[in-house]
Design goal:
homodimer; 340 residues; alpha+beta; HIT family, subunit A; ten-stranded antiparallel sheet
Amino acid sequence: MPELRKDPVIGRWVIISTERAKKPSDFKVVREEWKASSCAFCEGHESETPPEIYAVRSEGTVPNTPGWDVRVVPNKYPALRIEGELSREGVGMCAMMNGIGAHEVIIETPEHGKDLVDLPEDHIAQVIRAYRQRIVDLRGDKRFKYVLVFKNQGQNAGASLQHAHSQLIATPITPKRVKEELVGAKEHYDHQHSCIFCDYIEQETKVFGERLVAETAHFVALSPFAARFPFEMWILPQRHSADFTYIQDDEVVDLAKMLKLVLGKLRVALDDPPFNYLLHTAPFRRPRAGYWATIEEDYHWHIELMPRLTSVAGFERGSGFYINPTPPEVAAQILRETEV
Amino acid sequence: MPELRKDPVIGRWVIISTERAKKPSDFKVVREEWKASSCAFCEGHESETPPEIYAVRSEGTVPNTPGWDVRVVPNKYPALRIEGELSREGVGMCAMMNGIGAHEVIIETPEHGKDLVDLPEDHIAQVIRAYRQRIVDLRGDKRFKYVLVFKNQGQNAGASLQHAHSQLIATPITPKRVKEELVGAKEHYDHQHSCIFCDYIEQETKVFGERLVAETAHFVALSPFAARFPFEMWILPQRHSADFTYIQDDEVVDLAKMLKLVLGKLRVALDDPPFNYLLHTAPFRRPRAGYWATIEEDYHWHIELMPRLTSVAGFERGSGFYINPTPPEVAAQILRETEV
């Protein structure tokens, strides 16, 4: 019998197919070949991107020249524009704003052909520090409410370039998905006086364990109870923290270790699948009156990692109701047992 | 400057790229070749499907034999199971139900290789009547709260068989997306004492017109103000009605005409793209106390039609915030001007 499972945070229902659970070999991973040439993100091609905003560089090197490990530049084809005042307008009964925002690319390595998982842990830590630095900087811009950091790897996951990179989009509104989490977390806190994510981590590590993928000193990786996608994973800090930018440096190093571990497991278990990951952290400004008072207490930042093994069809699009052919317990066991 | 637009019903924000708006020729439609052979949905192969639940048949023909125009059968690989009592269970802090539901296939024609748009209007009307008949029948099952009718055409839209078919899934909960519409419609009604969809149709047909695609005697097809996808369209009845099953027969005939028209326009304008459509109608049971009293007044059934021209990447998945490269005004103009 399949199961209907409800995400405890946002209340989204998922159909979990428990019979004939799909194993890694059942998925036909769609992968297109990249042209194996250098690109604007490669070392020596710095002039082909807009000028850099941030970089981890060897001492004595000059911005927009070689000598960097991680480099952040504006997206050449941004979804939103950084220049201008934010303006709002009604169009009949509909609301509109001009598309003010920031859209940046975090180039994770100067070397073409290396993926994030191929980098040493201390290099991945530099990528994580770049995420933090850019969010802190953009938070100073009063026009923005949120920065979403995300990574698309593989064409089937929406990447348009092979060279390893993440992106961020700063928006003048808090994304709906994050708002839903804030609302769910607040409701739980109002009832229980505890963080729903902390309670969830406690349950998954101490009570059940079957959906756990990995634990490090400061982080836990698990396949969520109501996983939308096969082999979906969440990485959560064990220490309660609403805001990713308050991450401590030993936690950065440990998160790098965790990312390398779970991305390595994904690569081995699923033959290097395309994937997306996203960082969900607290928004900059209070979403509603009286709410901010507790957001530090009730919310918990985390990373959601979603391999692209299935396509989202009409039913999912129209219902917001996902069908996941691999129970998270099966996925977690396979990932736990995958040696990297 | 791009625009941020808010859907007036559910409050979902969309980034509309207004510069370099993508035209039909800018989309690389992914289309895999189907094996051009007959299949279990073909006339003469009736024994290869589970026994039929409903069919439009020539007089004197016997169920599960040739002689039908439209045929409804249980899905051989259902996402949910029809047999059993609905049971609920808590798993720690998480909620679960057993996967009770119905999953049926509406085979639209006995002829392999014909798409819905290729059928005569009176045949399409029979398909629409099959949708209605199945919803009415399943409504009698007290375990279900909702029936979602949808169609995936093309492998890239999630279809696993070429033979023209729609599907329906009956669920013991009302899908999240529909609930969001019900909440938005109720809020509007509480303030305005009018149906938000009726007001929206009025605005789009009488005030603006630039997002209008087609009008028939009883229906309007438009590209929504905050369209998530390029060339997305909604088909709405001009007469206020919350519940699709109350459609009148002259409206069925007119809806068939409208479907053939807009699907024909899509095929011509976008080189026969893969697409999904979904029917959003009122749920069977009241979603919350006191709510049902007005659902007939505040909700408005409709069809959402989404060509598959772009893939949903990490940002969309993580934020619930879509990026649409084709403004709906551009899409609507192209579709309006497309002759079929």
